[in-house]
Amino acid sequence: MRWQTFGERTIYDSPWVRLALVDVDVPGHGRIDHHVVRMPMHAASTVVHDPGRGLLLLWRHRFITDTWGWEIPAGRVDPGETPAQAAAREVLEETGWRPGPVRPLQTYHPANGTSDQTFHVFVADGATHVGPPSDPSESERIAWVPLEEVRDLVLAGELRDGLSLTGVLRYLLAPT
């Protein structure tokens, strides 16, 4: 059954995030104010695979959760940029490797019960090393990790970022 909305008011707004209260009629429960996180920009990421090397991953710290883990290159889609352009740009900026042509792998909403955030995952076959990353604050280290080890990282909980975990597992299921 479809929930019907009757309006929305903003509680907080910034270029990165907006928090809103949506007046919604929940079938069987009546009207309520539902908190919704609006994300004005989409995110794009790339699973970069090289048959001889594995996947291109970043080892990084996330201050919000105070955790370390492996991630695929990712970032926001800038105004005037397509998700595919952003995905390729982020690989180069974060790793110093220029990916082969990127192809769509998956688009999804990671928390669609509370947020309209959209993630676009791409895949690229191989990459060419261009130089050091243009943004060295993105990671502690960059590595090509063989697929067998990537599976072990997933099982060990060392790939804990949802965007990376979803993209890598989707790739392992069917690389396209």
Characterization of the model:
The protein folds into two domains: 4-38, no CATH class; 43-173, Nucleoside Triphosphate Pyrophosphohydrolase. 19% of the residues lie in helices and 44% in strands. The longest helix is centred in the middle third of the chain and has 13 residues, at 83-95. A hairpin with a 3-residue loop joins β4 and β5. The chain is an alpha+beta fold and 176 residues long. Strands 4, 5, 6, 7, 9, 10 and 12 form a seven-stranded mixed sheet that branches. It has a three-stranded antiparallel sheet with strand order 1-2-3, with no helix packed on it.
Residue runs with pLDDT of under 50 for 5 or more positions: none
Quaternary structure: single chain
**The CATH class of the largest domain:** Alpha Beta
Write down the domain tally.
2
Mean pLDDT: 96
Strand content range: 35-45%
Count of helices? 3
**Globular, elongated, flat, extended or rod-shaped: what is the shape?**
elongated
Would you report the number of β strands?
12
Question: Which structural class should the secondary elements be placed in?
Answer: alpha+beta
CATH topology of the largest domain: Nucleoside Triphosphate Pyrophosphohydrolase
First-residue to last-residue Cα separation: 34 Å
Main β sheet profile: 7 strands, mixed
Short description:
With 176 residues, the chain is of the alpha+beta class. 19% of the residues lie in helices and 44% in strands. The protein has 3 helices and 12 strands.
